[in-house]
Amino acid sequence: MTQRKARPAFFAAMAWVVLILLALVPPCRAAAPTPTPSSASTPATAPSLADLQTLEQALQNPAQRQILISEIKALIAVQHHVNGAHGSRPGSVLVSVLSGAAVRAGRAVAALARLTPWQTAHVWQRRLTADPALRAFVLRQVGTVLGVLALALLGWWGMWRALRAPANRLRRVPRHPEWRHWLAALAGCVLSLLPAALMLVVGYAALAVAVASLGLDALSRALALDVLAALAATRAISGLVETLLLAEAAGERFLPVADSTAEYCLVWTMRLANFAALGWFGLDFAHQAGLSDAGFAILLKAYGLLMTGLLVMLILQNRQSVAQTIGGQPDGRAWARLRFQLGKLWYLVALAYLVGAYVVWAATVPGGFAFLLRASVLSALALLVARVIDVLGTRIANRFLSIGPVLEQRLPGLQSRVNIYSPLLLGLGRALVYGVALVVALQAWDVDFLDALETKAGLHAIGACVTIIVIMAIALMTWEAVSLATELYLNRQGADGTPAARSARVRTLLPLFRKSFAVTLGIIVILISLATIGVNIAPLLAGAGIVGIAVGFGAQSFVKDVITGLSILMQDAVSVGDVVTVAGNSGLVEQISIRTIRLRNLSGTVIVVPFSEVSTVKNLTKDFSYALFDIGIAYREDVDEVVKVVKALADELQQDADYAWRIMKPIEILGLDQFADSAVIVKARIMTLPIQQWSVMREFNRRMKRRFDELGIEIPFPHQTIYFGEDKAGKAPPARVRMEENTDAGLADG
Question: Is the pTM value of this prediction over 0.85?
Fold first, then answer.
């Protein structure tokens, strides 16, 4: 999107001026307006002769006199309502003034109907045609006004041309760092206002010269001032919006919005600005030129109605996009669902507010529009400040809640624990900020929320909430301190930087202590919170004691589990990570609670064993383990030679880097252990670290099999020797064996 060219608004402005001069009102008052309530409410001034004559005619005419009397009575009734509602809130007097507003509206319509603007314009046209001197005067006044406005527009155009190049350079300022980008945006906004400011300076100077030298009359001067103010206002708004939304090239727009969005915002902003400025200043000039107070009031209400219609159209056009921005994507959270519903209904609230504001303004509720404007501005400021605090607070909190790599190395998992509480802390902070903003907004709308809190019940509720929050915060900090101390103790590093060794007993009991402490702390917090809100906890404590006794009698197995488990844990018989055999089940200890032990066997099956069923604990990995070998060799082998081979294999295994750290001591040969049916058994063992005996045993067996095969050492398999006995001389009788060949013929003969 390219920068929009400077539009020469000269011809449009001149056409607007001529239209007002020649068609809207004459340059002098043709008729004195009928007294109206609105004029009656203005500061009193000396009545003119025409006013007195009109009043005299109204009093002499019976019909007009009756209308005047009814208007005076209506004014008295309205004044009674206003005085009675003095000191009340603007919202409370809305109904009381609606009737007066209806009377005033009817009176204004009647007064406007009694005017004869077209007859006056016709008379003025006839005078202008018949009187050359008057025609020359009017043309001179129009030409002077046009000249003043032309000079003002020329000054604006020259300043705009001069500042266009530096404004484009400001758009090319890099977006990083952000402060430089926004500083450039601020400078661009200031530059965009300078042409409009110069327009006013040049216009006022030219107008002063025209009044002093050319004799510009008051009405022409008022016209020039209104048109000049309208043009300056629209040009200032146009410059600001174009500076922020338009760009010479892609990526040079100050506000990061799409091209279609920028064009839409620009069109609607200028549409509203032109309508507001030209309409308001046009009505102001018409009022100064002779339009009666009643006519000005009713035209002003119609102008406000058209402006409200434009805003309603804008709201309806952006209903879906704003709903998506507010509502987001709904999920399972209650706040997200509420936000989504608010996003769907936002336009109804906006329309109701807009229509209500127009009704309050049009009905001229005493102090109503000022109250509405003040409450709206304060509410918007409160929400804006809350949003700024929310964004800045979130950034600061994220920076302070980020754990450094050094601390994360010392305390593994600390960042994950912080991440658990950071959303809660941010949510509480956000709720507090927007809660305060909501209270400020309610107070701005005169909703006495704070007055309700100042009552005895409100103060008690606030005190209870603060007490509960403080207790929960202290409990949470205590719990985190205990957890942090546990983590520090278990993960403390030694002087060489390696983690200090902690016994399995400590690693088992500390988590159990932490869980027990959490349960106890939670019960204490619940009891104190109940006592704070006024619940008598003495019956609860007594009932808990009775229930505890009943549970103790009825749950003997549970009590037995707890007592047995505590006894086993205090004796350090089993710990997490050990390989044990309990109640006939073997496996790795994965978890130990106050009443059960959970194992996982070699096939991956999880076994949960209550402590009450544990009578014997076989811990296969307590402090150290042994890889035990029963080496079977044939009876004909030399046992001493086999022992040497086994020792050499053990030394070779201990030199292997993959297994050296697992072996605590060299192999220990226990000797020839037994004579089996098919082999003699040589027993040996190697001391290893806990749980490493099986890996050492498997590797040693693999190497021993390979070495025995290389050396021809027989590892016998089960076999039998047949013995036929012997005589006294020691000679065995011969075993006669006859081999027969079975053939088909022999079988047939047999």
Answer: no
